[in-house]
Amino acid sequence: MSRTFAYARVSTLEQTPENQIREIAAAGFGIEPHRIITETVSGSMAIAQRTGFSKLIERMEKGDVLVVTKLDRLGRDAVDVTMTVARLEKMGVRVHCLALGGVDLTSSAGKMTMNVINAVAQFERDLLIERTQAGLARAKAQGIHLGRPPALSADQQRLVRKKIENGETVSAIARQFSTSRQTIMRVRDQA
Description:
Blueprint: E1 4-10, H1 18-26, E2 36-40, H2 51-59, E3 65-68, H3 78-91, E4 94-97, E5 103-104, H4 108-141, H5 154-165, H6 170-176, H7 181-190
Helix pairs in contact: 3-4, 6-7
């Protein structure tokens, strides 16, 4: 007899998996509470490193069903999701994703749908990276300083160099400017 499990993941402690659990119930999946696995872990972590999901895999058997609300619950990227679904399929577990109309991701139609969605998501990520890099290059070309602002102003940096030339120690100068020794050494090394 097949059993149905649910996996709900949120990224931060401020979030709750309750909405995902309600969405699964509203879709008609009656899942016993002890078969609902929830965890709070960043989506950037590979699914194989997620404690809750690892425990879930150990409990599942051939013929079982796993329900998730979205594809990204199953991995950090398209490759991770695809590998996870393939692993579950090899175990004989069907995977239903509500965001894709509840389709079984281990079926032919499910695999095709998942591959198309994954390809579009990867394309969007690549475009975002390209736009970000272009924006950074444009800002740099316009002379805009990127990164954190310097700890010391240009005048303070000149004063630091003068103090170093006069033989004051890095530690003493750092105390005078209420900054770290590393900041003073960076100014010294830039001279």
